[in-house]
Specification:
Structural class: mainly alpha
Number of helices: 5
Strand content: under 5%
Keywords: Membrane, Transmembrane, Transmembrane helix
């Protein structure tokens, strides 16, 4: 349970770093994803104390993959609840399928895409239900 909580927190951090840099600092989407990921990698590389495998191997994967979801345009994840749902979906996918994430590749981007699409679908269902039940 603690492991999932850490994955969720790292996912939120990676996604929101990318979102912030893209929307408010006006970085390009790719730079908004790459800059914080590089910063995290350098921080972990230069950390003077020995770290567990989770911190050295999985944390950068989670952060980098979640930053892909943060590359979304503003209307895809317009508010904090949709961003949190997207990060939660990504964390759940990573937690459930972590044996398939052996390296940086298509699996992280696909998981981020599924997370954003899932969040968008839940937004649409919420809006439809609100419209249907509150005429």
């Amino acid at each position: 349970m603690i492991r999932f909580f850490l994955i969720f927190l790292i996912s939120i951090l990676g996604q929101n770093c990318s979102l912030y840099l893209q929307r408010y600092a006006h970085f390009s989407a790719v730079l908004a994803s790459a800059a914080p990921s590089l910063g995290l990698a350098l921080f972990l590389f230069l950390w003077p104390y020995p770290l567990d495998d989770f911190w050295l191997e999985e944390l950068p994967l989670i952060f980098f993959g979640a930053s892909f979801a943060g590359m979304s345009q503003g209307h895809r994840l317009p508010n904090l609840p949709s961003q949190l749902v997207s990060a939660l979906i990504f964390a759940a996918l990573f937690f459930a399928q972590s044996q398939f994430f052996k390296g940086y590749g298509g699996a992280l981007g696909t998981s981020a895409c599924i997370a954003v699409l899932g969040s968008m679908a839940l937004q649409e269902l919420y809006a439809y239900g609100k419209k249907k039940w509150n005429p």
